[in-house]
Amino acid sequence: MTDIFIIEEAEKDDRLMQIISLISLWFIPVLIGFILLYGTLKKVPTYETFVEGGKEGIKMAVSIIPFLVGMMVAISIFRASGALDFMVDFIRPGLEKVGIPADIIPLAIIRPISGNAALGMTSDLIATHGPDSFIGRLASTLQGSTDTTFYVLTVYFGAVGIKKMGDALKVGLLADIAGFIAAIVVVTIMFA
Amino acid sequence: MVNYIWVGMTIIGLVFAAINGTMDDVNEAVFKGAQEAVTLCIGLISILVFWLGMMRIAETAGLLDKLSNLFRPLISKLFPDIPAGHPAMGYILSNMMANVFGLGNAATPLGIKAMEELKRLNGGKDSASRSMVTFLAINTSSITLIPTTVIAIRITYDSAAPTEIVGTTLIATCISTVAGITIDRYFYYRRSRKG
């Protein structure tokens, strides 16, 4: 009985996976085709318009460089010096008391700061604990449900020259904390 | 605030390195960090050029206007400062769509365009407007429908059900987006009461 159940579950999952990968595979090509056909129908000089719009992209990418260099060097120094590990160790006991698994804490702290580092940590947690363990599922959910707040802020504000960020960073980080708590609660309810 | 965080991270790092004897790593980190940032920006050029080119066609053809007309009630609730029919709406919406479908690469150029329009709307000032803070709050807690990268990692490590985290991710991301909007509103009302 249970064997059949497991096989059915796996098949269902397989089909879902196929649909999802099909959507991811087709989405961008269909979007490109649609924009081009629609533009042609509306008598837009498509190629010239594309080139005009694209030129802006070069300017944008170059104007972001100093913002990212500044931010990423500071983050690299903070990480390489061991300060980040120290901070994680310092916060860990308090969070463990509330029932947050210790292994997940570094990821939660890194996630808003560095996208690449977070991705590395998620892979590492999944590799160590297994993708279907509680930690593995939690790390997966956490990685997928929030974004690199520092990166988004640096790039978006940097590209258009906003110097005073107002409450943006505070709001972004508080939303990250909310997302982190939500991930733990949801994964605990669904899988534990 | 950014200034303090930036200097703070660097100085604390340097002090730590002095105490821990990790000056070697810090020296390397300075150049690695800078290099990584430039590599990232150069990599962005291709994506920015392509998607901004495509979006210019969509904009000229009137597709962006159609999109913002469709979702106007929702957007004008979220961004009361944006006048109806302003081009910022179209870009904000396409950026949100790109995020929902996990197209981070396409989302960045659209987000920057949205920011540009919002800045113009704010009289070109170099301080963040109310709409900009809201836009960033929604963006950093971006709703994700399909976390493609995570699913790929789970498959690599032989998960029995690689997609089982789609549901939990969607719920968590919705909660964080709602929280982001709520927190943003709270800070806005606090600001407006003060000034």
Descriptive account of the structure:
- Chain A is an all-alpha fold.
- Chain A has helices at residues 2-41, 46-80, 83-97, 105-110, 115-129, 134-145, 149-160, 168-191.
- Chain B is an all-alpha fold.
- The model of chain B has no long low-confidence stretch (mean pLDDT 86).
- The longest helix of chain B is centred in the N-terminal third of the chain and has 38 residues, at 23-60.
- The interface between A and B is large, with 103 and 104 residues.
Properties at a glance:
heterodimer; A: 192 residues; mainly alpha; 8 helices; flat; B: 195 residues; 9 helices; 0% strand
Describe the secondary structure blueprint for this structure:
The complex is a heterodimer of chains A (192) and B (195).
Chain A: H1 2-41, H2 46-80, H3 83-97, H4 105-110, H5 115-129, H6 134-145, H7 149-160, H8 168-191
Chain B: H1 2-20, H2 23-60, H3 63-70, H4 72-78, H5 87-100, H6 104-121, H7 130-140, H8 148-156, H9 165-194
In brief:
The complex is a heterodimer of chains A (192) and B (195). Chain A is mainly alpha-helical and 192 residues long. Chain A has 8 helices and no strands.
